[in-house]
Amino acid sequence: MALESSDMDMAVTNLILPDREKMIDSLDLFAEKMRQWEMIEDLNAISTASIPVIKATVDLNLLRNKEMNNERPQQDTGKNDFGTTQSATGQRKEERKITKIPDDMAELKIDITFDDNMGVGVSEETNDVFENQSDLYNTASNLPKTHQGLASCRLIKNYVEQYKCLKEVSIILKQFLAEMDLNSPYHGGVSSYSTVLLLVAYMNKWNLKMSPTLTPSRLLMGFLDYYSYYFNVSLFGIDVSNDGSFYELSSPESNFVILDPLNCQNNTTRNSFLTNEVIKSFRKVFNNLKNLLMNYQQMQNPNITDNLVDLILNRGNRADSPSDGRKSSSEKQQSRSPTSDGERSRTNTPEDDKQ
């Protein structure tokens, strides 16, 4: 579910890292070696992060030119080497003439972390596949180490396979948050992993996992409507483990509280201090989409597809107050629940639907 602007996440595996100090030593050593590569730019080794990480940018033009122009060592096959013919040499030179990657696509941002789960009782079979989702939760949650990158990839793949329309809507939400500069947890936003968990919680709450009537548009509108006007961040957290959704917090919070299903001690949004901005963005785009739909129904607007893209991404604008004047969940009593297509329910719901 990568976007064109997505970073590449890489994990160094099969190392014995008994403690954090050893992990940081390995990270610093690798970073020192990487600084010697001319195609590496803006390298920063962050050892103070909860998961120590190397952040860098790769110049893809330099990387490709180096790979294409360097002669690879010839393996010793035990046979006589009678040299290379002139025609073959000329052919290789022709193959090296490659088109330059456009500058706006030539820089690839990478994040490199170190997997410290080697030798902690996880079998090779467990690393490769989980028979079902509960096995994944139970195995990963008991790991005494910190790195869950590979396990989270398997979890997301599992969600995509088992939750209808999740892939399509996740990509839209990721692109929207990226356009709004709200997709980086290091800067107060919400990560793509947390965004998927928000969507899974909503689908679990309203039993939409494999709903026969569910479409990407209905799921998107219901999601935006619910988190804009019904979900109360200060009162409820999110826990999707074992097909869960929301739970009542022990004390009020100002940010999202999203428990990692792979490690219940980890709040994936603990640094998301722009939670209010995220919710306001959801609210604004929901109202924009709703107004666009109303205009289309009344005027048969032939440009609805073009307008839809701009309105979803809200290009170049920060979210502001709701365009229709409705109050958010923090400003009113939450007594009704949205349907899957974003319309209002006409009947009251039980007390637990106030979240």
Gross morphology: globular
At CATH's second level, what is the architecture of the largest domain?
Orthogonal Bundle
Low-confidence region ranges: 71-86, 119-131, 134-145, 316-325, 328-337, 339-355
Number of helical regions: 11
Radius of gyration: 25 Å
Structure class: alpha+beta
Please tell me the total number of domains. Answer: 2
Distance between the termini: 29 Å
Please trace the helix and strand order, writing H or E for each element. EHEEHHEHHHHHHEEEEHH
Largest sheet properties = 4 strands, mixed
The name of the CATH topology of the largest domain is Poly(a)-polymerase, middle domain
Number of strands: 8
CATH domain class name of the largest domain:
Mainly Alpha
Please estimate the helix content: 25-40%
Question: Any chance you could write out the topology, listing elements then pairs?
Answer:
Elements lengths: L7 E5 L7 H15 L5 E7 L6 E7 H10 L16 H10 L11 E8 L9 H5 L4 H9 L7 H14 L3 H14 L12 H14 L10 H14 L6 E3 L7 E3 L10 E2 L2 E5 L7 H25 L4 H10 L42
Parallel strand pairs: 1-4
Antiparallel strand pairs: 2-3, 3-4, 5-6, 7-8
Helix pairs in contact: 7-8, 7-9, 9-10, 10-11
